């Protein structure tokens, strides 16, 4: 593994904003729910017992941070994690918090 160079101030600010967004438990629940398959707003809301407006609000923030992407299918938009980096980070952090020690 090669060492990464120090991020620029701009990149550090974007990273901090991303981690701030990930600090919300509802957003994390939405991300984990979308980990295995694309989900509609209605499906997310029903499964996580949230209002559709609240889910839409969180998805808008997650999408602006490029953590999720939306794909339109007919009259619905299905949301999935934006790429393997996001899913890998979530899985790594979930494993990290479950470790003993």
From TrEMBL:
UniProt keyword annotation of Protein transport present: no
Signal sequence, renumbered to the chain: none
Gene3D superfamilies: Winged helix-like DNA-binding domain superfamily/Winged helix DNA-binding domain
One GO molecular-function entry: DNA binding
Domain HTH arsR-type: 7-101
Tree of life domain: Bacteria
Coiled-coil regions listed in the entry: none
UniProt keyword annotations, A-Z: DNA-binding, Transcription, Transcription regulation
Keyword Transcription: yes
Pfam families: HTH_5
Protein known as: ArsR family transcriptional regulator
